[in-house]
Amino acid sequence: MLIWEATVINKVGEKAPRVILVGLRHSRRNGSDFEGFMRELEALVEAAGVTVVGTLVQSRDKPDQRSYIGRGKIAELVHLVEETGADMVVFDHELSPGQLRFLEEQVPARIIDRTGLILDIFSSRAHSLEGKLQVELASLQYQLPRLMGQGRVLSRTGGGIGTRGLGEQQLELDRRQIRQRISDIKRQLAKVEKTRSLHRKQRQRRGLKTISLVGYTNAGKSSLFNMLCQKAHHSGQDQAEADQRLFQTLDTTTRRIRFADGREALLSDTVGFIQDLPPHLIAAFRSTLEEAVAADVILHVIDVSDEAYFEKVEVVNQVLEELGASREQIHMVFNKVDLLPGFKGGNGSVPYISALTGQGIPELLVFLEKVLWPD
Ligand SMILES: Nc1nc2c(ncn2[C@@H]2O[C@H](COP(=O)(O)OP(=O)(O)OP(=O)(O)O)[C@@H](O)[C@H]2O)c(=O)[nH]1
Ligand SMILES: [Mg+2]
Fold first, then answer.
1. How close is the Cα of 241 to the center of ligand 2, in Å?
2. Which atom of ligand 1 is nearest to the CA of 336?
3. Which of 241, 356, 364 best tests ligand 1's pocket when mutated (most atoms within 8 Å of CB)?
4. What residues does CATH 3.40.50.11060 cover in the chain?
5. How far apart, in Å, are the Cα atoms of 201 and each of 197, 206, 254?
6. Which residues surround ligand 2, an ion (CB under 5 A)?
7. Which of 22, 152, 218, 266 is deepest in the core (most CB within 10 A)?
8. Which ligand has the shortest distance to the CA of 359?
9. Pocket of ligand 1 (CB under 6 A)
10. Whether 298 contacts 292, CB under 8 Å
């Protein structure tokens, strides 16, 4: 059956694919810093475990409808692919099904767009049943309009998994199977959500307060989660994984933490955000994200050492707002102060911390206690 399979771009045992990045600088890209965007794309590619061997940048007023980068630039891309021996080309934006097909025909390498790349990273990181179902749902919805004729179906990585010799009939069969699978997954997810909302009601009834850590990917949420559990835990549990790779965390982890006076709260570590998150992914992860914003306190973790932190704060605020978080719930915490040369400490109103060295953590716990129990 041709349904989504969890294969990763860089399968263990295969040599790391060589990748060319393609970026399109155009006037409609909402003023954001293009170089920063490309650096982030490279970090995403690295998070998928592949090596970048070249970058191609095109400037035009707007994307070309048929080929995204324009015909002249495609010739240059083909040349670069041949010269570098690249196996894969990653585009900086989601391609339409038509653009993807056209590029596949023209360029002798696998074509992947930013959405396909993010989906790939997500699927390699999902461990829980819910996470896996959510990623599969988003992936199938992405894949459905991208199924191709002649019995070729685009794999999640944009390449073809060859089931040659099959025709339109097979294609229709595949589509029907995918639609069927999509509705199965939705049904399963609805069940998981029901159980979760039941648990939430139980917690509320017991009066247990909740804190969720949210923020841009790589801001240090998992590191802070571990640090807070270490300083305020009462049961030795396994740790959340912190890593410099983007989207290290996908599944939500929750632990009980205890404050100085013995009061307790539940702390959750969650999936990170990124600019231009694929809409299918947001939709698929909606219940996880809504769960995060339903907390009594939303701790927005910010990497102050990142020169683009201000834009990233905006991205996170926007997603939080879309999810219905209220301003009163959201509290910012500035992380990675150890990387700021000559940092002397904040003015006391906003917590400045280092989840790595532990600086500012006792103060953060006091801060959290105050916002959780204001009386
Ligand atoms: N120097 C320094 N590095 C930090 C600090 N906090 C986290 N890091 C590093 O930043 C990287 C990302 O940390 P994580 O805790 O995995 O970040 P995250 O927000 O959970 O990331 P995702 O799960 O990928 O969204 C890791 O390499 C951490 O070691 C800090 O306070 N100072
Ligand atoms: Mg994490």
1. 6
2. 31
3. 356
4. 18-124
5. 6, 9, 16
6. 221-222, 248-249
7. 22
8. 1
9. 215, 217-223, 242-244, 246-249, 272, 335-336, 338-339, 354-356
10. yes
pTM of the model: 0.88
The CATH number of the structural domain formed by 18-124 is 3.40.50.11060
Q: Does domain 208-372 have CATH number 3.40.50.10860?
A: no
pLDDT digits (tens, 9 = 90+) for 235-293: 556 677 888 888 888 888 889 999 888 899 999 999 999 998 888 888 888 888 988 99
CA atoms within 13 A on the CB side of 139: 30
Give the number of whichever ligand sits closest to the CA of residue 47.
Answer: 1
Ranges of residues in the chain with a pLDDT under 50 are 1-8, 11-12, 150-165
Neighbours of 179 (CB within 10 A): 12
Instruction: Express each pLDDT in 106-141 by its tens digit.
Output: 999 999 999 999 999 999 888 889 999 999 999 999
| Residue 238 one-letter amino acid | D
HSE value, Cβ hemisphere, 13 Å, CA-based, for 130? 19
Ligand 1 center to 244 CA (angstroms): 6
